[in-house]
Design a protein that fits this description.
Blueprint (H helix, E strand, L loop, with lengths): L16 E5 L3 H13 L3 E5 L2 H10 L4 E5 L7 H11 L4 E6 L5 H7 L3 E4 L4 H13 L2 H8 L7 E3 L7
Parallel strand pairs: 1-2, 1-3, 3-4, 4-5, 5-6
Helix pairs in contact: 2-3
């Protein structure tokens, strides 16, 4: 049996690894291109089952997770990924409205509504990758309810 991957901090010698989970291939390609351009290693999954399989075999530093997906919903995927690795940094990216309180209660690091603001996304990723394990534990325990939140601009894309 393979040991579970361990949480890595942003000070790892190699590139930070981002797991990008979205059922829309064009969204995965667009966001993946931006992230690779910033020097991140990007692993992509089209649904929650694929994401869980990747996370079980690769060390992941951060997950970008869409909520509306087939096979396994985004929140079910979040629960699976964080049950296996509670310190995993997660950014919810969604077009689904009214998710802020659910995200706060779950201890999510960030909630960014689509359409995405790429400079905000990149800044949020950098901030979450710099977080200490203690900061994440505090947020997960509900003691620090600060969340990086970017509401939808209202523009349709």
């Amino acid at each position: 049996m393979n040991p579970k991957p361990q949480f890595r901090t942003a000070t790892s010698a190699d590139k930070e690894t981002i797991l990008l989970v979205d059922d829309d291939a064009s969204v995965r390609e667009m966001i993946g291109r931006v992230l690779r351009g910033e020097g991140y290693l990007v692993l992509s999954a089209a649904n929650g089952d694929e994401a869980a399989g990747i996370a079980a075999t690769h060390p992941i530093d951060l997950v970008l997770l869409d909520l509306n997906m087939p096979v396994k919903s985004g929140w079910d995927t979040f629960e699976k990924l964080t049950a296996d690795n509670p310190l995993l940094a997660v950014v919810i990216i969604t077009a689904r409205p009214n998710q802020l309180f659910t995200a706060l209660g779950a201890g999510v690091g960030a909630l960014l509504e689509k359409p995405l603001d790429f400079p905000k996304l990149l800044k949020t990723i950098r901030l979450l990758l710099m977080e200490s394990a203690e900061q994440r534990l505090t947020r997960i325990a509900g003691h620090d309810t600060k969340i990086h939140y970017q509401p939808s601009s209202g523009k349709q894309s």
